[in-house]
Design goal:
The structure is a single chain. Helices cover about 60% and strands about 20% of the residues. The chain has about 160 residues and is of the alpha+beta class. It has a domain of about 55 residues: Nucleotide Exchange Factor Grpe, Chain A, domain 2 (Roll), CATH 2.30.22. It has a 3-stranded antiparallel beta sheet. A 3-stranded mixed beta sheet has the order 2-6-3, with no helix packed on it. A hairpin with a 2-residue loop joins strand 4 and strand 5. The radius of gyration is 37 Å and the shape is elongated. The mean pLDDT is about 90.
Length: about 160
């Protein structure tokens, strides 16, 4: 009788083991499906992010472009006037310049006009050095103003710098 009990207990153990194996295989299959789903979702997020970045790059200057078109319209209107005095042209150009400066302020573009300041290679580009009674490295003239966008130099100011005699 001991042999029958051993055979039945062996069958019972084998049956339990088979059930455990089946459950584990089901769990593995479920986990594999979750991994595949997560991987697909990550790829979709990556693709959407790349598309969003591409759109942002393409249309980053859209608002600025719309504003700058107003300046272009003002210049076109000034050129369309057949006869006018030099004074009226000057007034028109002055208004257009103010319009442009307002756009710059709106988009945080700041002018660098460093006349009389100490030379800073981060914001200025020395075109010439001139012997002067002034202290060394002082900016004597500004040939071309520079511009900064959100604390980043768009274009350095072109300057003449003093040097000792």
């Amino acid at each position: 009788m001991a042999k029958k009990e051993t055979k039945s207990s062996t069958k019972k153990i084998a049956s339990e083991e088979s059930e455990k194996i089946l459950k584990l295989e089901e769990q593995v299959a479920a986990l594999e499906a979750e991994v595949l789903y997560s991987k697909a979702e990550a790829q979709n997020v990556r693709k959407r992010s790349l598309e969003d970045i591409d759109k942002a790059r393409k249309f980053a200057v859209e608002k600025f472009s719309q504003e700058i078109l107003l300046v272009k319209d003002s210049l076109d209107a000034a050129l369309a006037i057949d006869k006018g005095s030099v004074e009226s042209y000057k007034d028109g150009v002055d208004l257009t310049s103010k319009q442009l400066l307002n756009i710059f302020a709106k988009f945080n573009i700041q002018e660098i006009n460093p006349l009389g300041e100490i030379f800073d290679p981060n914001f200025h580009q020395a075109m010439t050095m001139v012997e002067s009674e002034e202290e060394p490295n002082k900016i004597l003239t500004v040939m071309q103003k520079g511009y900064v966008l959100n604390d980043r130099v768009l274009r350095p100011a072109l300057v003449t710098v003093s040097k000792t005699k």
